[in-house]
Amino acid sequence: MDVYEAIASRQTIRDFEAREIPMALLCKLIDAGLKAPSNDHLRRWEFVIIQDRARRRALIQSIRAPQDTQGATNLVNEWGLVEQSQREMYIDAIPKQHAMLLEAGALVIPYFYTSGPLLQPETLSALNSFASIWCCIENILVAAASEGIYGVTRIPFEEERNSLRRHLHIPQGYEVPCYLALGYPKGGAKRMKQHEIRLEDKIHLNGW
Ligand SMILES: Cc1cc2nc3c(=O)[nH]c(=O)nc-3n(C[C@H](O)[C@H](O)[C@H](O)COP(=O)(O)O)c2cc1C
Predict the structure, then answer these.
(1) How far, in Å, from the CA of 57 to the mean position of ligand 1?
(2) Cα distances (angstroms) measured from residue 98 to each of 45, 50, 83, 122, 161
(3) Kind and range of the H or E element at 106?
(4) Which of 113, 150, 162, 188 could in theory staple to 13 by disulfide, Cβ–Cβ 3.0 to 4.6 A?
(5) How far is the CA of 206 from the centre of ligand 1 (A)?
(6) pTM confidence score
(7) Is 181 a pocket residue for ligand 1 (Cβ < 6 Å)?
(8) So where are the chain's domains?
């Protein structure tokens, strides 16, 4: 698959087969992540792979999200969302937040080093380490798509960050940007309709 095909094929999948990703392949995907650009040249990123289901359960128990469609619809209404494809995405996604992390072929917890406090940054560049790890994550997702493996990211809410700190050894200076679930899509896995975008509406010559 060429790179454009892999980029076009990447999409968020939240319904996974109960099939592990072979470790050599998982390492290859993470290696693709480690080729991403990095703010400080050092790529101070680490990856914890959690295969044990009991450990995963302990890790995700602090996620508070409705696990049924009605609860998800109520939340989306509360948020005041009106765009149809966005509503559909959230109503499908919200009830799957636990299952997708539990059932994925691999649950990867990326860590990145940040030299200063990440929250309440005073300058845009104070967020460079956070920006860099997302370049890394996107490389992993695109490389995964080229292998028929798809994934989903979840940013931990505050309570989940505390739980991650309790359950994982996170050295001083390191942060977890997201949970990264990767796996083989289940037959009939939901593939969300994308919000339509026209390239010509996005490109502005000599100013916007
Ligand atoms: C920064 C970021 C945070 C996200 N957080 C979540 C999340 O908490 N739960 C979830 O199921 N999906 C999450 N997603 C996936 C998005 O819902 C998904 O990327 C978006 O709907 C576009 O669909 P696509 O990835 O299939 O193109 C997140 C994606 C990004 C980039």
Answers:
(1) 21
(2) 25, 15, 25, 34, 15
(3) strand 106-113
(4) 150
(5) 31
(6) 0.96
(7) no
(8) 3-202
